[in-house]
């Protein structure tokens, strides 16, 4: 620590506290910045920027191609569209079953994510705030599912859904999704519920709250950020899921967007502009959400992987 | 009295919905794969006990054994290449991003963006970009004077699997970068300062300070990547079909399992073989379990340290 004070000089005291503060302490070091370092920084930034361009380029192509006519796609594949035409989108929206797929995706994903948030927060609350025999074992039981992909059990799941008469319904998807969302959601929420001070609970009980009211009125509002994280990390993979709709659904009118895309791709294989418009429409909800709140997205989606 | 009894049971009321759904629709199916694999099946109807016959068939009888070994190999290549890319390029990008600043944050947003796309969209997008006659990849090569390198990437036995892996890496890389970055932010800056004051070169600081402290995070991400890559399915199904064309060059355990369990649409709607499918699922389950035991123990250690 003395070392740090000697080198960073002013502002170093902040460096002890947190990484965030440490970043601030890095700023007052210009006395070291030589010409070579400036050049290095420039090289670094251009490399990072170049890589960002390479990564974004396919996305950019997807966007511009969606506005082009087939003729333009063949003869000027890299140029911007001469006229930003919405004709391709009109075809997607009117002639294909696209609005139906979109509605199905919203319905299935929305229901699943809401149910996950409700059910997982109830369970996590019990695991975090009640002492009872078997608590630790149950926590491990939930955690055990954390790293085993549910799709490895798809055959028994398929037969189970058949026996329950749920094949080719949205229920089969919702039930599967809710079950597969439990381990991560319970894990994250339990961590947050454990961190809440016990006094709040006591105070609420003294005020005459029932057990459920303590949970719903007092404790749940305090873990709202965690709840948002849980909903986000479940929303993305469920919205994009292709595997379970492929196995469970037959009727075209029930298909979600990823599965509907394959139907749609088969129909319009030669009509590139339309296919790109479809892909763009399918990706836009998440992409826009991501661009609007990228920091929350990045934090949320990596939360489970680093620390609950 | 009644209320006290109720209060003592409350936790079970709270736990019941999660416990029931999780047990019935996740734990039970995963475990009963084991049971299913020991039975003979006629279509989706269970017949007599078969002992290890399904395993014997999958492991030692052609064409199953051949496909299993081929698929396993491709999964190993898939993981090895992805792992190499993310622990070199990915780690480098993460360390550079850690310098902060608005420009680099914008770069990070770009790196992570493809991760929000559905694998189906990613598959179709690259199917069009890699199209041998009019795809933009070959056109870019031609425009750069590298026209002789242009080839039918997805139709060539030699390039099909690497092409798929790179497409997957394009979408995936933002995830390891972001997790590494979160890990790097957790390393106290004074440790780096101290090493620098002691005269360490930037490489030495990275090698002897950053890398050891980041090791649990790298391990964690690698385990997640392993599990993810050994369950790869969508991208190959969308781009190369359920039997991993050309001639099984991109066949992986996921597609092999799908074909066996639910029928091969390419050979005319053959019925799925539940016994064989379950045996494959169990083998995959064991592979993944081995990895996740390592993963959970890493996570445990990390949590204790924090």
Key descriptive features of the protein:
heterodimer; A: 308 residues; mainly alpha; 16 helices; disordered N terminus; B: 306 residues; two-stranded antiparallel ribbon; 13 helices
Task: Describe this structure as you would to a colleague.
The complex is a heterodimer of chains A (308) and B (306). Chain A is 73% helix and 0% strand. Chain A has helices at residues 2-8, 19-26, 35-66, 70-75, 87-94, 98-129, 135-143, 154-163, 170-194, 198-206, 211-222, 224-240, 243-248, 257-267, 272-292, 294-306. In chain A, helix 6 runs parallel beside helix 9 and helix 6 runs antiparallel to helix 12. Chain A starts with a helix and ends with a helix. Residues 1-31 of chain A have low confidence and may be disordered. Chain B has a two-stranded antiparallel ribbon. The mean pLDDT of chain B is 87. Chains A and B meet through helix 1, helix 2, helix 3, helix 6 and helix 7 of A and helix 1, helix 3, helix 4, helix 5 and helix 8 of B.
């Amino acid at each position: 620590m003395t070392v740090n004070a000697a080198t960073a000089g002013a502002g170093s005291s902040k460096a002890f506290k947190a990484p965030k503060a440490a970043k601030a302490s890095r700023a007052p070091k210009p006395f070291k910045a030589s010409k070579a370092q400036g050049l290095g920084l420039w090289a670094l930034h251009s490399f990072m920027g170049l890589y960002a361009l390479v990564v974004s380029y396919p996305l950019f192509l997807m966007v511009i191609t969606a506005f082009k006519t087939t003729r333009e796609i063949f003869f000027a594949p890299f140029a911007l569209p001469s006229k930003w035409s919405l004709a391709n989108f009109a075809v997607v929206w009117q002639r294909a079953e696209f609005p139906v797929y979109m509605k199905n995706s919203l319905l299935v994903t929305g229901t699943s994510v809401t149910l996950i948030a409700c059910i997982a927060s109830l369970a996590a609350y019990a695991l975090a705030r009640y002492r009872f025999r078997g608590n630790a074992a149950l926590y491990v039981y939930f955690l055990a599912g954390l790293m085993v992909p549910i799709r490895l059990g798809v055959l028994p799941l398929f037969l189970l859904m058949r026996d329950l008469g749920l094949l080719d319904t949205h229920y089969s998807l919702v039930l599967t999704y809710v079950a597969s969302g439990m381990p991560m959601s319970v894990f994250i929420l339990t961590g947050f519920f454990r961190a809440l001070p016990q006094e709040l609970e006591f105070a609420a009980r003294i005020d005459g709250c029932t057990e459920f009211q303590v949970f719903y009125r007092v404790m749940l509002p305090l873990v709202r950020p965690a709840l948002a994280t849980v909903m986000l990390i479940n929303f993305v993979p469920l919205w994009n899921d292709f595997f379970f709709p492929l196995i469970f659904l037959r009727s075209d009118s029930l298909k979600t967007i990823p599965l509907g895309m394959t139907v749609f791709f088969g129909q319009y294989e030669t009509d590139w502009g339309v296919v790109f418009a479809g892909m763009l429409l399918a990706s836009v909800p998440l992409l826009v959400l991501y661009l609007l709140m990228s920091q929350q997205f990045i934090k949320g989606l990596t939360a489970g992987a680093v620390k609950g | 009295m009644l209320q006290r009894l109720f209060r003592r049971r409350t936790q079970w009321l709270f736990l019941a919905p999660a416990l029931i759904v999780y047990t019935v629709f996740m734990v039970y199916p995963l475990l009963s794969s084991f049971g299913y694999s020991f039975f003979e099946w006629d279509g989706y109807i269970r017949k007599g006990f078969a002992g290890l016959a399904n395993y014997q068939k999958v492991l030692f009888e052609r064409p199953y054994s051949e496909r299993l070994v081929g698929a396993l190999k491709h999964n190993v290549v898939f993981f090895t290449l992805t792992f190499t890319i993310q622990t070199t390029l990915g780690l480098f990008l993460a360390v550079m991003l850690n310098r902060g600043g608005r420009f680099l944050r914008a770069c990070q947003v770009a790196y992570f963006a493809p991760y929000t796309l559905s694998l189906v969209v990613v598959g179709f997008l690259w199917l069009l970009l890699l199209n041998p006659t009019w795809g933009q990849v070959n056109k870019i090569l031609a425009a750069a004077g590298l026209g002789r390198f242009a080839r039918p990437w997805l139709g060539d036995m030699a390039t099909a699997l690497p092409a798929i892996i790179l497409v997957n890496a394009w979408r995936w890389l933002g995830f390891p970068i972001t997790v590494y970055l979160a890990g790097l932010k957790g390393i106290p800056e004074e440790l780096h300062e101290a090493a620098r004051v002691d005269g360490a070169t930037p490489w030495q600081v990275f090698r002897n300070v950053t890398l050891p402290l980041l090791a649990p995070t790298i391990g964690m991400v690698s385990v997640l990547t392993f599990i993810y890559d050994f369950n790869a399915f969508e991208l190959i199904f969308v781009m190369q079909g359920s039997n991993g064309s050309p001639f099984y060059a991109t066949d992986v355990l996921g597609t092999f399992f799908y074909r066996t369990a639910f029928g091969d649409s390419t050979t005319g709607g053959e019925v799925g073989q539940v016994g064989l499918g379950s045996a494959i699922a169990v083998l995959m389950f064991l592979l993944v379990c081995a990895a996740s035991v390592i993963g959970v123990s890493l996570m445990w250690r990390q949590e204790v340290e924090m």
